[in-house]
Model the fold of this input.
Amino acid sequence: MMRREAGWYALLLPAFLLLSVFYVTPILQVLAISFLEPSPGFSNYERIGTNLSVQRVIITTLRICSITTVLALLLGYALSYTITLASERARRWWLLCVLVPLWISVLVRAFAWVTLLRRQGLINQTLQGAGVISEPLELVWNEFGIIVGMVHYMVPYAVLPMLASMREIEPRLLAAARGMGASRGQVFARVFLPLSMPGVVAAGVLVFIFSLGFYITPAILGGGKTLMVAEWISLQILDLIRWGLGTMMATLLVVTILVTLAVFSRVVNMRRLFGGA
Amino acid sequence: MEGGYSPGRFGRALGWATALYLVLPLFIILPVSMTDQRFLSLPHEGLSLRHYAALFASGEWFASIAQSFWIACASTILAVSAGTLFAIAAWRINRRATELLRALMLLPLIVPSIVYAIGLYRYFGWWDLLDRFAGVVIAHGVTGIPYVVITVSTALASFDVRLEQAARGMGASLRQVLAWVILPRIMPGIVSGAIFAFIHSWDELVIVLFIASRDVFTLPRRIWDGINENQDPIMAAVAMLLIVFTTLLLVVDLAVRRRRDG
Done:
């Protein structure tokens, strides 16, 4: 039996080697640099307490990610709820509305938002043409634009885990509650909502950790004025050549994400989430 | 869910609004790409295809599209071969250790690409892989493995282990079992994984921003420069082509899945 299994173990090797050599090593190197450059020790990490730019980017990132998570959960919940209660035929179309945006290039989506939101963009032109506003609204290249784009990106990720948990809810429970005299609002608040909570928590964790390291959407829709962690890291490395600070922030980012995941590992199942898509 | 229970008016309205919010910005690109103006706007007097013509006539855009395509093909092959073998072996061995390895395989989905990108920037400098076709293929291939591992594992979950054991019992070698028993049964999972790995590489920008500069200039990289620099409607034409292309791939994926389920 042992000799037979050896063959199977060999099949694990290509992926394992590729990942160790070309994925894990470069990332471990990032962790190492954060302690070694410019001088060995914790000097980079001490900046978290002293450097205003570091503190500001952390606070901005946490604020934007929290707002994004709340909005994505709210919109995603309404969408999943509608999909769950839709008929079999309609559900296929609803799912397409979630899956197509999920896989469309993030650049294309950011581009679409810029086209819509900028000063001479479609929304401002339409509103001005209709005489609703006289001056164009500042809809992009600020925090508002970032959040619009990020929520748009994150809603599908919020929908998938919530949908999975909502579909496990026994529909006859809802009908029974209705039959026993509960109002529609009561059925939702006392039966549906509590039963769907595991999905909401999973979606919340997922959206939050994905938002933390987001680069392209904030960079395009923020216009360089509102910096989030990922863009700040890139600035440190490419423009200011401050490897120590950049890798310190990268390490902080990874540790935050892994700790969050570990805490919630019982509710978030990444494999099931992506496999069920 | 058929059970005589339907959502309330508020829930339904918010659901519809969310779906429109997701889809409408993508649809707006179509009229913009057919504008008769020289800048990004809705068509004023008539529809025009000249921005598509300009796109196909432009050597720069075409070169980037071709480069992205070949990189995506090569990295998909890398991800699919490594990921499929891994998923099969992990499924067959099914020990605690392989569960741990499987979690390791999912890391590229969890760790933000900016962290990986800055790591590679320095690391590939040593390997002399910066701004090389091979470097980008390796980076995209490795980060594409998780998609394949997930879809193939899902396909394997419904596969009866005893079939494999019976084939081995009757004297088939490992190679024969793989080629004649396992692979044909999980083909839809492999195709799905390949499609996702391909889209992953085709769209990837963050890593490319760090490890490529002149010789390797992929399509996302060119779009990125375009968004930051100009208002050329050619961008809308590119965006529209990408939307159509991705949607087509997804439709293929759905068809493959339906055949597997049906």
In short: The longest helix of chain A spans residues 2-36.
